[in-house]
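Project outcomes to date are best conveyed with an example. Our students and postdoctoral researchers have been running inverse folding experiments weekly, and each run begins with a structure described purely in tokens. The record below, which covers 520 residues, was selected by the lab manager from last quarter's runs and is presented without edits.
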């Protein structure tokens, strides 16, 4: 099978993580679990961006040495990822393995003439860690966040970004999936068509950062440093002899997941850096939308904070993951309210999924002492509801492959939930209690088996999104196979008896409700 390399942004450790950070990270985790379950060799990288003025300033405000500050601030990120079942590699830009690579790349590009000394004069916004041309500054305010910008006039190294723009332009035109969604691709195209300047890639006014090799009064610009994590995190080194085999295996990245705020860095500067290094470009850069509250981007500095830990305490990690992945279209902005979250958990998780499992468990207990019966499907079942259910379930793996290829998490979940609704409707339509009463035992066995195996399939489908719940269901239905191996869509259904996956005789137990109803 193939390989899959997915990344998230590495987050600034000026503050604790918020729901926006968790959003990108959960999305990457879902993809990574999905591709693992398809037997891909997966590398998923997240981490923290620990240099730059913004982080140094946060340390100063706390009266702490910067290193001590970053060592402390990385902890809440790691803890949150653990709570959210994020199964990934982790890189910190203050790690030696990263700093060495940043310096080696700087040196290589300087030798090549792609990095040259000069003088930077212009405006700098510490919050955005970005330089802005005069033309974008109004009344001394940052065009992005409206904070005050600072006039910077200092010696600086520049990276010849402009050299690579024609090639980048062509690449974007020829590869419609390189920047997703389409609206973002258009944004980048018009940005580069308006002309791109070389980027300042070092600072002399600050000390906190990776030292420029051979010219230590400079530190490397935080973005130049941070982007390199995607390479250093898988063992890259510009000297091939020093490369880890992982680099060869996993590069180029299959998808960089980012928020739309950092699109230009990823879709312009980063590809230019890679071209300068002679490395392949990532296959896809997906810039998702913002989570908003009252129409405004959620971010600590704007006073709009939603603490993921609080929501996990109240609703659990899986409900959290489910809500954020199902509620919003990944490429668009989405307005968050706790009320919608509660409604969604009650309707989809407590009702649809929870009831399906609970009702089936109760009937299984009543009719079969909990032991899943052995169905004998017949030709006539081909025409009926049972067949419809099987066909629906059979179609899901291909649907999910298609949707997740373009990071459509909400459509993927909608497809799974459609199946869950059909299974619930199947209970009503087939009325197993009636079959039981009338002692139509063969029919009852088929219906109850179809339900149990349908639930087995649902557990496998939801596994990438809700790993804990999938495991719980797996245990509850007494399944013995590999939950994490994703089922394949079968080309044709000839005989429903070929579709017996969950072993008849499995012990389907009654258990605590998966998702207790929340007071609305
Ligand atoms: O930009 N909605 O780090 P950062 C959705 N260190 N996603 C959001 C969000 C929101 N309201 N707020 C933040 C940096 N995010 C750099 C990145 S990468 C080489 C360096 C997510 O801590 C989203 O992914 O400001 C966004 O791009 C990222 O957090 C910014 O995190």
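After processing, the design step wrote out the following sequence:
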């Amino acid at each position: 099978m193939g390989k899959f390399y997915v990344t998230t942004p590495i987050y600034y450790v000026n503050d604790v993580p918020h729901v926006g950070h968790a959003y990108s990270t959960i999305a990457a985790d879902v993809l990574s679990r999905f591709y693992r379950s398809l037997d891909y060799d997966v590398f998923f990288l997240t981490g923290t961006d620990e240099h730059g003025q913004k982080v140094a300033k946060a340390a100063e405000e706390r009266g702490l040495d910067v290193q001590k500050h970053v060592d402390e601030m990385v902890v809440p990120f790691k803890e949150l990822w653990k709570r959210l079942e994020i199964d990934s590699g982790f890189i910190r830009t203050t790690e030696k393995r990263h700093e060495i690579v940043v310096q080696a790349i700087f040196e290589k590009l300087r030798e090549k003439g792609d990095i040259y000394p000069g003088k930077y004069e212009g405006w700098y916004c510490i919050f955005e860690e970005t330089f802005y041309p005069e033309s974008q500054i109004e009344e001394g305010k940052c065009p992005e966040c409206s904070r005050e910008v600072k006039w910077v006039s200092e010696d600086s190294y520049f990276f010849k970004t402009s050299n690579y723009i024609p090639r980048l332009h062509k690449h974007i035109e020829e590869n419609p999936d390189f920047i997703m969604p389409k609206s973002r691709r258009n944004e980048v195209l018009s940005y580069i068509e308006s002309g791109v300047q070389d980027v300042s890639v070092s600072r002399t006014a600050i000390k906190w950062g990776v030292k420029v090799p051979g010219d230590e009064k400079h530190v490397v610009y935080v973005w130049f440093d941070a982007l390199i994590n995607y390479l250093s995190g898988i063992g890259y080194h510009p000297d091939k002899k020093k490369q880890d085999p992982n680099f060869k295996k996993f590069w180029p990245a299959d998808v960089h997941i980012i928020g739309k705020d950092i699109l230009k860095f990823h879709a312009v500067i980063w590809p230019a850096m890679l071209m300068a290094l002679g490395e392949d470009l990532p296959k896809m850069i997906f810039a998702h939308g913002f989570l908003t509250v009252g129409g405004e981007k959620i971010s600590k500095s704007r006073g709009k904070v939603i603490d993921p830990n609080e929501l996990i305490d109240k609703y659990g990690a899986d409900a959290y993951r489910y809500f954020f992945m199902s509620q919003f279209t990944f490429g668009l902005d989405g307005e968050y309210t706790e009320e919608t979250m509660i409604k969604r958990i009650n309707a989809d998780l407590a009702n649809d999924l929870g009831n399906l499992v609970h009702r089936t468990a109760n009937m299984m207990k009543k009719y079969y002492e909990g032991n899943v019966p052995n169905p004998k499907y017949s030709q006539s079942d081909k025409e009926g509801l049972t067949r419809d259910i099987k066909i629906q379930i059979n179609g899901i793996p291909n649907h999910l492959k298609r949707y997740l290829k373009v990071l459509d998490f909400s459509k993927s979940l909608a497809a799974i939930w459609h199946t869950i609704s059909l299974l619930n409707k199947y209970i009503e339509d087939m009325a197993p209690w009636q079959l039981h009463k009338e002692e139509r035992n063969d029919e009852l066995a088929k219906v109850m088996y179809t339900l149990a195996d349908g639930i087995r399939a649902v557990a496998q489908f939801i596994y990438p999104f809700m790993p804990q719940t999938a495991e719980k269901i797996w245990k509850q239905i007494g399944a013995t196979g590999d939950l994490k191996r994703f089922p394949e869509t079968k080309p044709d259904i000839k005989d429903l008896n070929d579709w017996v996956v969950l072993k008849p005789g499995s012990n389907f137990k009654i258990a605590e409700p998966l998702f207790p109803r929340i007071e609305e």
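The first strand starts at residue 3 and ends at 12. Residues 9-12, 20-21, 23-24, 49, 226-227, 229, 258-259, 261-262, 290-291, 297-299 surround ME8 (CB under 6 Å). The training component of this project remains on track.
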